[in-house]
Specification:
The chain has about 70 residues and is an alpha/beta fold. It is built from 3 helices and 3 strands, in the order αβαββα.
């Protein structure tokens, strides 16, 4: 995560890492100080405490972003 941030030239607190794996995406990104968004069917925020945001579908994400 740190390497990626350095390559794009931003600080961790300026980034939002979006992924569908709690262990691979959210845990790692949050450990370096990035905000995180987990996209996972049937998920709820209470089950994934390190995720800043939890959405249940990529379509929901697309509707918000686009």
């Amino acid at each position: 995560f740190i390497y990626m941030l350095r390559e794009i030239g931003i600080r961790p607190e300026e980034a939002l890492y979006v992924g569908d794996s709690y262990k691979k995406d959210v845990v790692g990104a949050s450990k370096v100080g990035m905000r995180t968004l987990l996209i996972r069917k049937g998920a709820d925020k209470a089950s994934f405490p390190l995720a800043d945001l939890v959405l249940t579908s990529w379509q929901t994400f697309a509707n918000i972003v686009i």
